[in-house]
Amino acid sequence: MRDHAIAVWGRWRPSCTLDELDVSGHRIIEEAGTAIGCLALRVEQTEMTLARLFVDPGHRGRGVGGHVLQRIAEEADRRALPLRLSVLRPNPAFRLYLRHGFELEHETMERLHLLRLPRS
Questions:
Q1: 42 touches 76 (CB < 8 A)
Q2: What is the rounded distance in angstroms from the CA atom of residue 19 to the CA atom of residue 39?
Protein backbone atom coordinates (compact mmCIF):
# COMPACT_ATOMS: atom_id res chain seq x y z
CA MET A 1 0.00 0.00 0.00
CA ARG A 2 2.84 2.37 0.78
CA ASP A 3 4.11 2.31 -2.82
CA HIS A 4 0.63 3.02 -4.20
CA ALA A 5 0.11 5.90 -1.76
CA ILE A 6 3.46 7.42 -2.68
CA ALA A 7 2.55 7.16 -6.37
CA VAL A 8 -0.71 9.05 -5.74
CA TRP A 9 0.27 11.58 -3.03
CA GLY A 10 4.04 11.70 -3.28
CA ARG A 11 4.48 10.56 0.32
CA TRP A 12 3.27 7.98 2.81
CA ARG A 13 0.59 9.20 5.20
CA PRO A 14 -0.53 6.57 7.71
CA SER A 15 -4.25 6.96 8.30
CA CYS A 16 -3.99 6.61 12.08
CA THR A 17 -1.80 5.57 14.96
CA LEU A 18 -1.99 2.13 16.56
CA ASP A 19 -3.97 3.63 19.45
CA GLU A 20 -6.55 5.02 17.01
CA LEU A 21 -6.83 1.91 14.84
CA ASP A 22 -10.37 0.52 14.65
CA VAL A 23 -10.13 -3.20 13.93
CA SER A 24 -13.87 -3.93 14.00
CA GLY A 25 -14.87 -5.76 10.86
CA HIS A 26 -11.29 -6.89 10.20
CA ARG A 27 -10.40 -10.51 9.57
CA ILE A 28 -6.95 -12.10 9.47
CA ILE A 29 -6.06 -14.19 6.42
CA GLU A 30 -4.07 -17.27 7.45
CA GLU A 31 -2.26 -19.98 5.56
CA ALA A 32 -1.07 -23.03 7.48
CA GLY A 33 -1.49 -21.12 10.76
CA THR A 34 0.54 -18.10 9.63
CA ALA A 35 -1.04 -14.65 9.21
CA ILE A 36 -0.47 -13.60 5.59
CA GLY A 37 -2.93 -10.72 5.25
CA CYS A 38 -6.09 -9.06 6.41
CA LEU A 39 -9.38 -7.76 5.15
CA ALA A 40 -11.96 -5.32 6.43
CA LEU A 41 -15.55 -5.88 5.44
CA ARG A 42 -18.55 -3.74 6.32
CA VAL A 43 -21.95 -5.40 6.02
CA GLU A 44 -24.98 -3.12 6.00
CA GLN A 45 -28.63 -3.70 5.16
CA THR A 46 -28.30 -2.48 1.56
CA GLU A 47 -24.71 -3.29 0.62
CA MET A 48 -21.36 -4.75 1.57
CA THR A 49 -18.12 -2.79 1.33
CA LEU A 50 -14.68 -4.31 1.12
CA ALA A 51 -12.77 -1.54 2.87
CA ARG A 52 -9.39 -3.30 2.88
CA LEU A 53 -7.78 -6.37 1.35
CA PHE A 54 -4.09 -6.80 2.03
CA VAL A 55 -1.93 -9.80 1.24
CA ASP A 56 1.66 -9.88 2.47
CA PRO A 57 4.02 -9.21 -0.46
CA GLY A 58 5.70 -12.59 0.00
CA HIS A 59 2.37 -14.33 -0.61
CA ARG A 60 1.11 -12.30 -3.58
CA GLY A 61 0.76 -13.79 -7.04
CA ARG A 62 -0.35 -17.18 -5.70
CA GLY A 63 -4.12 -16.71 -5.86
CA VAL A 64 -4.66 -15.78 -2.21
CA GLY A 65 -6.36 -12.46 -2.98
CA GLY A 66 -8.53 -14.06 -5.66
CA HIS A 67 -9.61 -16.84 -3.31
CA VAL A 68 -10.50 -14.37 -0.55
CA LEU A 69 -12.31 -12.12 -3.01
CA GLN A 70 -14.33 -15.07 -4.34
CA ARG A 71 -15.42 -16.01 -0.80
CA ILE A 72 -16.51 -12.41 -0.09
CA ALA A 73 -18.40 -12.28 -3.40
CA GLU A 74 -20.17 -15.54 -2.51
CA GLU A 75 -21.18 -14.04 0.84
CA ALA A 76 -22.56 -10.96 -0.94
CA ASP A 77 -24.48 -13.22 -3.35
CA ARG A 78 -25.99 -15.24 -0.47
CA ARG A 79 -27.15 -11.98 1.10
CA ALA A 80 -28.28 -10.63 -2.31
CA LEU A 81 -26.24 -7.46 -1.69
CA PRO A 82 -24.06 -5.41 -4.00
CA LEU A 83 -20.37 -5.37 -3.10
CA ARG A 84 -18.39 -2.14 -3.31
CA LEU A 85 -14.73 -1.24 -3.00
CA SER A 86 -12.30 1.44 -4.05
CA VAL A 87 -8.69 1.16 -5.09
CA LEU A 88 -5.94 3.72 -5.57
CA ARG A 89 -5.34 4.31 -9.28
CA PRO A 90 -1.83 2.81 -9.50
CA ASN A 91 -2.80 -0.37 -7.63
CA PRO A 92 -2.46 -3.40 -9.94
CA ALA A 93 -5.19 -5.18 -7.92
CA PHE A 94 -7.66 -3.28 -10.11
CA ARG A 95 -7.29 -6.04 -12.72
CA LEU A 96 -8.03 -8.70 -10.08
CA TYR A 97 -11.28 -6.96 -9.17
CA LEU A 98 -12.35 -6.75 -12.81
CA ARG A 99 -11.71 -10.50 -13.22
CA HIS A 100 -14.04 -11.11 -10.28
CA GLY A 101 -16.98 -9.30 -11.81
CA PHE A 102 -16.52 -5.77 -10.49
CA GLU A 103 -17.26 -2.87 -12.81
CA LEU A 104 -16.04 0.69 -12.65
CA GLU A 105 -18.82 2.72 -11.07
CA HIS A 106 -17.05 6.09 -10.92
CA GLU A 107 -13.60 7.52 -10.45
CA THR A 108 -11.84 10.41 -8.78
CA MET A 109 -8.35 11.80 -9.28
CA GLU A 110 -7.05 9.33 -6.67
CA ARG A 111 -9.37 6.32 -6.68
CA LEU A 112 -11.36 3.95 -8.83
CA HIS A 113 -14.70 3.01 -7.23
CA LEU A 114 -15.96 -0.43 -8.18
CA LEU A 115 -19.25 -2.26 -7.84
CA ARG A 116 -20.18 -5.94 -8.16
CA LEU A 117 -23.89 -6.67 -8.34
CA PRO A 118 -25.17 -9.84 -6.65
CA ARG A 119 -25.49 -12.99 -8.74
CA SER A 120 -28.54 -15.17 -8.30
A1: no
A2: 19
CA distance 102 to 60: 20
pTM, rounded to two decimals: 0.79
Q: State CA 95 to chain mean position distance.
A: 12
pLDDT in tens, 56-107: 989 988 999 999 999 999 999 999 999 999 998 888 899 999 999 999 999 9
CB of 54 closer than 8 Å to CB of 39: yes
DSSP, residue by residue, 16-43: S-TTT---TTEEEEEETTEEEEEEEEEE
Check: CB of residue 116 under 8 Å from CB of residue 76: yes
Phi, psi (degrees; rounded to nearest 5) at 100: -100, 20
- Rounded CA-CA distance 75/84 in Å is 13
